Amino acid sequence: MVKRPRKPTAPLLTDDAVPLKSGRVRKRDPEQPELPFDPMPERIEPCLAKLVAKPPRGDEWSYELKWDGYRLAVHIETNRVRIITRGGHDWTHRFPGIEAAARRFMPNTMILDGEAVVLNEQGVPDFGRLQNSLGGRGGKLPAGNAILFAFDLLYLGGHDLTKMEYSARRHLLEDVLADSPGSIRVSEEFDEDPDEMLRHACAHDLEGIIAKHRDRPYRSGRTGDWLKIKCVQSDTFAIVGYEPSTALPGAIASLLLAARYRDGWKYVGSVGTGFKHDEARRLKKQLDKIKTSVPVVSVPGKSLVMTGPSFAAEIEYRAWTHTGTLRHPSFKGLREAEDWAEIYRLPD
Description:
DNA ligase (ATP) activity; NA-bd_OB-fold; six-stranded mixed beta sheet; about 350 residues; DNA_ligase_ATP-dep_C; five-stranded mixed beta sheet; alpha+beta; 2 domains; CATH 2.40.50.140; D-amino Acid Aminotransferase, Chain A, domain 1; DNA ligase (ATP)
């Protein structure tokens, strides 16, 4: 539709003989609205995906891959970059590659929501490699090889975008990151059958897929606006002890795990696979430093060494048994103990 041309306006009449001068500055009328700019928030509680068995269907849903790494919010301000973990810790110094890539957007301001990963030779996220890059649990090494897959845009150029629907935020995100440096990439959106997409993700050893409602604003917590469908279950549990190895001196045979339950902890089983000999010895040395005679949970068995819940492990498992323990668990790596938000919580 062609727009009708506007009528030309009369030129501004001025008296060249009269000097220009400004009028008296008036105080802002409190009845008038504030300037349409939003201050950048110090932190936004992340929107979390709710676990479901099957992906939803319908045009209102968007689908992308589920990344296996660390959830981060990248705050790009006019004069600095802050990289905040899901638990609210400032880890800017731990991800120098992502920070350097983010600085190239300055002085533009924005908040990117995404996942930091380290890829293996096949281009698949490897949580163990990410942990090794960070120096292991409690390590202080920077993960210079980490990549941020950004999947949401929460703030841009002085405007809070969290009240916008996801489809609009996604459109802006793709525009902003169209020519993004290599350490910050858009998490690709797929327009295909979600069951087929999940099958492909599982066949390529990926963690699963995420479904997001296109019409919803960004709401913190596990609201159901975002859903996750996993190939294999993977969650974080507290380590509350270990069983010593009888075959490998100075090593563990299995780790004892607990989940958050009400105001305390609940035992969810043990894991005895997924770690190599060197790691089994290193874990024993670390856990021996926090042994306790007052266990936080009751665990059946003999010759067990109990510890305080100061270490957190990422565990893969197939399902839950009828007794409330993990079925076929496998150790993936240690999580940062300071990020307690990651620990799995059992329903009441």
